[in-house]
Design a protein that fits this description.
heterodimer; A: 392 residues; alpha/beta; seven-stranded parallel β-sheet; six-stranded parallel β-sheet; 18% strand; B: 167 residues; mainly alpha; de novo design (two linked rop proteins)
């Protein structure tokens, strides 16, 4: 990139301290842009300001509320709004990039408060909800201020078209593909192994489906082992497993980035039996880049990420028998498995940040045409003047 | 007394709502203008690249003629005839590139790469512009905006139609 240096403001709606797809996307994008020489400031709800990197500005402590079937750490309210306005007027940004501006958090507040070039990225994919009918009329005028909209997947794009009747450009989430390209094969994780990474206690991650499928798989592949990595309390899960099969399970706990790369290069199959609630499936892109043969449920996000089965095998979501069937097929046919993994690895390069960030940057350029930077919107300027806070 | 207060409140709210709606529409018009400026700039650049290609060794004399004509047409076309002229240029470029020419020179390769990058950008720019136009048209159809003529004298933006056949 040999463009002029920009001042870019990124807004992350979810608590910075909690791991999550949107947070890592914002962090990676911010670090990529900083490495390219741009000035980047991230506004996010933060619990522990000491631990947050330098480029993060806290908008306050997040509030945990149930949203969209999970507990989300969001932030809103008058104090947060004041901080958002202050961040915008102090930042003198050329452009704002708001993540998930349609959920009740600071991205929405920033979109409300600012005027100028703004890009919004929509991550979520959800079925049509009744609540949106009620808040649609309030959201619409705010969302339509965005100069350009990005959806991370076809699923997210159709959610946007359905809910807010507006279109978006699809740019996938990014991964650092080279971190996964050179994973080393670790003896203890290789062989007839099935790998799983994620918060396995959450039912929507689908570990129960795998547990149910395992007896069938074990009948046809007697030496099969399941490796589960990720944070969680394994005791209860282990107790729910049939004692005869317990020895086939290994819980690794949280693993480091390096271990993750090795893990993905070592396992015979990486399985993602998620039952829903996924919009993109970044872990699948990582698994593909790591060279694992991927087996995933056929929920819309995974189906489209895996090219309808071309770059990874699919099974019928929530159907343990189908999972077992496809897994056995892959475990027995090494040539087929290796060919699938090879196709997947090549395909995964398109999710590399070098590609994804360039695409995002070209959207920035388009949004910047004929603009003179981000300011507080006229309504908010009037409000500030009324309160005697002009120029604060 | 309370009645008057209530009426005053309603009037104030109505005035606020109208001014808010006018700002909203103004922003949308602004969005249409900037997205058009962006698209227009990219299309001009494409026409320039097309002329370069016509002059280069990629094109034989016949396609060179075709391309030059199409590029000039696209440059000179008025707003309404623009999408048709640009489609013509897309077609001419398409014909040339799909013939499967073997391109050897580095200048030619650069030209073709620039063209393909531009094409990608144009595709996105069209989507952005179409979205802005649709949204503006939709808002302007709403009763409040029609009754109070919040659009003023701003012309209704026209849809740009060549999304499907851009190279």
């Amino acid at each position: 990139m040999n463009q002029k240096k920009l001042r870019i403001g990124l807004v992350c709606p979810y608590g910075w301290d909690t791991p999550g797809g949107v947070q890592s996307h914002v962090r990676d994008l911010a670090e990529y842009l900083i490495a390219k020489g741009h000035y980047v400031s991230v506004l996010a709800p933060v619990v522990d300001e000491e631990k947050a990197p330098e480029y993060v500005t806290s908008a306050g402590k997040p509030i945990a509320i149930p949203y969209n079937g999970a507990v989300a750490r969001l932030l809103f309210g008058p104090i947060a709004f004041a901080r958002v306005r202050q961040w915008i007027s102090n930042g003198k940004f050329d452009l704002l990039h708001l993540h998930e501006p349609a959920i009740p958090s600071i991205s929405l507040l920033a979109c409300w408060a600012a005027e100028g070039p703004m890009v919004g990225t929509f991550h979520a994919a959800a079925k049509r909800q009744k609540a949106i009918f009620a808040i649609g009329p309030i959201l619409e005028p705010v969302i339509e201020k965005l100069t350009a909209r990005i959806a991370v997947s076809e699923a997210a794009r159709s959610t946007l078209t359905e809910h807010l009747e507006t279109d978006a450009v699809v740019i996938p989430n990014g991964i650092y593909a080279d971190r996964y390209r050179d994973g080393e094969v670790v003896e203890k994780w290789s062989g007839n192994t099935i790998g799983f990474i994620g918060r396995y206690e959450e039912p929507r991650k689908g570990l129960p489906v795998l547990l149910e499928a395992l007896p069938i798989i074990a009948r046809f592949a007697p030496d099969v082992r399941v490796l589960v990595a990720g944070p969680g309390e394994s005791k209860e899960v282990i107790e729910s497993i049939d004692p005869q099969l317990r020895s086939r399970f290994e819980f690794l706990g949280r693993i480091s980035e390096k271990e993750k790369a090795d893990f993905l290069s070592s396992v015979a199959i990486y399985v993602a039996p998620n039952t829903g609630g996924e919009s993109f499936g970044i872990i699948l892109a990582e698994a593909l880049a790591g060279g694992a043969a991927v087996l995933a449920s056929d929920i819309p996000a995974f189906d489209s990420l895996l090219g309808h089965g071309e770059f990874g095998a699919l099974f019928k979501s929530e159907d343990p028998q189908d999972l077992a069937h496809v897994a056995i097929d892959l475990l027995r046919d090494g040539d087929k498995r290796r060919a699938l993994a090879k196709r997947g690895k090549e395909y995964a390069q398109r999710f590399d940040w070098d590609v994804v960030a360039e695409d995002i940057y070209s959207i920035y350029e388009m949004a910047l045409v004929g603009s003179s930077g981000v300011t507080l919107s006229s309504e908010n300027r009037a409000w500030n003047r009324f309160l005697g806070r002009e120029g604060s | 007394m309370e009645k008057y207060l209530f009426i005053a409140f309603v009037i104030i709210f109505a005035i606020w709502y109208l001014s808010y709606s006018a700002t909203r529409l103004d922003r949308l018009h602004n969005r249409v203008e900037t997205s058009w400026a962006n698209l227009d700039g990219l299309l001009q650049r494409r026409a320039a690249v097309a002329l370069e290609i016509a002059k280069s060794e990629i094109a034989d004399p016949a396609s060179s003629l075709l391309l030059t004509a199409a590029a000039h047409q696209a440059r000179d076309a008025q707003m309404r005839a623009r999408s048709q002229a640009e489609s013509g240029l897309s077609g001419a470029l398409g014909l040339l590139l799909h013939d499967g020419h073997l391109v050897s020179g580095s200048i030619e390769k650069d030209l073709l790469r620039e063209l393909s990058e531009l094409t990608d950008k144009i595709r996105v720019a069209i989507a952005l512009h179409v979205d802005a136009v649709n949204r503006t048209q939709m808002v302007r159809r709403k009763p409040v905006f029609r009754i109070f003529r919040l659009a003023g004298r701003a012309p209704l933006p026209v849809t740009y139609e060549f999304e499907a056949d851009v190279l």
